[in-house]
Design goal:
InterPro entries: NAD(P)-bd_dom, NAD(P)-bd_dom_sf. This protein is an alpha/beta fold and 170 residues long. The chain is built from 5 helices and 6 strands, in the order βαβαββαβαβα. The chain starts with 20 loop residues before the first strand and ends with a helix.
């Protein structure tokens, strides 16, 4: 494990060398970082990390994005997620897998009361419609590992929430 300064990521290129597979789950919130900070973390840092990984020999890049990602969206969150998906694909990995999970169910160290209430509600909904609106983070992690162990179905694969659930159970 290497600790890097994302503001000076290019100085840490060595940390990105010699890996066949790269996993990226980097992200923040607009509430925590502001609109500019959100764009910097969720788009710019991720794109730069992907470029460094490719330059370092990475063949398969696995990106956690978001359901609804669309570079044409009028909503900042979904637009930035769509933009970073396009940027990562443009890097030219032999294989690029993009996961688009719905609401992530997890325990957080920081307090997010609105998110906590949504997770409680979605946890109940998930008992009836398990793949519709949410996914436990553990299932996303298992899906990320499983996709790397399977042969690729093309240069770019996009996995929506239902496929993440299926892979996460495998």
């Amino acid at each position: 494990q290497a600790v890097v300064d994302f503001e000076r990521l290019s100085e840490h290129a060595a940390a990105f060398r010699g890996h066949d597979v790269g996993f990226c789950c980097l992200g923040t919130t607009r509430a925590k970082a502001g609109a500019d900070g959100f764009v910097r973390v969720d788009r710019d840092y991720v794109a730069q990390a992907a470029e460094l990984a490719r330059a370092g020999g990475c063949k398969h890049f696995v990106l956690q994005s978001s359901r609804g990602a669309n570079h044409r969206s009028p909503f900042l969150y979904f637009r930035v997620k769509g933009e970073v998906e396009n940027l990562v694909q443009a890097v030219g990995f032999d294989r690029c897998t993009i996961l688009r999970p719905a609401v992530l169910l997890c325990k957080r160290q920081e307090s997010r009361p609105t998110e906590w209430m949504a997770q409680q509600f979605l946890g109940v909904v998930a008992r009836v419609f398990p793949t519709a609106y949410s996914v436990p983070v553990e299932m996303v992690a298992r899906a990320m590992v499983a996709i790397v162990l399977q042969p690729g179905e093309g240069k770019v694969e996009v996995l929506e929430n239902r496929a993440i659930h299926e892979l996460g159970k495998a």
